[in-house]
Amino acid sequence: MSATDIRQTRDRLNALLLERIESLVRHLYPDGRKEGHSWRVGSFDINLRTGLWGDWDGSTDSMSRNLFDLWMYATHHDFKTVLQEVRTWLGVHEDERNLGTDVREKEPEPAKKLVLPLLEKPTVAELSRLSSQRSIALEPLQIAAQRGFLWTYTDRAENVRAWLLTDSARKLAIARRLDGIPWAKINAKS
Predict the structure, then answer these.
(1) 103 inside domain
(2) Are 151 and 119 a contacting pair, CB within 8 Å?
């Protein structure tokens, strides 16, 4: 186990221990008592909301939020022993990668390739129609078409002319019908 794996395992177990903090403190310190949001054993205090723990008389070097370390402190056992004890107490098996948490490592989704229809440079008539429908001056539309951002095409599914706005890398695109009618196939914007 690498240092990173050990740290990740301890952090996952710590998160599970925090979810069951009241049961944990009753297990480790059965002679303690609950006072407000704390579990107290003499001057030793464990915050039941945050997991912050330490001894107010100075016998602990500093306050800590690590409940795995709390287990080590309470039992005076080494890391390897505590690791096994915590797993057993939580009912988590060593081979469980996610240690019972809701966080799951997902396989990365394959990159989706944007498949565009056969794009054409818009005609002056199409640019004029788009200008009047969208209240955009003709000149910016001409510039967008010249720079390769604005295209027209024939949508095969609905057999209509449409315009398409895309980025220079053609990784993102948005299309609308030139006649201004909503798409029938998705009942969406015009």
Answers:
(1) no
(2) yes
Residues 74 and 70: their CA atoms lie apart, in Å, by: 6
25, part of any domain: yes
Specify whether the CB–CB gap between 73 and 60 falls below 8 A.
yes
Summarised one tens digit per residue, pLDDT across range 94-148 is 655 444 444 455 677 777 776 777 889 999 999 999 999 999 999 999 999 999 9
Range of the domain at 127: 110-190
Instruction: Answer whether residue 95 is part of any domain.
Output: no
Please state, as a whole number, how many other Cβ atoms lie within 10 Å of the Cβ of residue 173. 16
Query: Can you tell me the distance from the alpha carbon of 124 to that of 136, in angstroms, rounded to the nearest whole number?
Result: 14
Name the one residue in this structure whose structure tokens are 């095969």.
156
Domain tally for the chain?
Answer: 2
Measured distance CA(130)–CA(113) in Å, rounded: 28
Give the span between the Cα atoms of 13 and 3, in whole angstroms: 15
Task: Read off the pTM.
Answer: 0.48
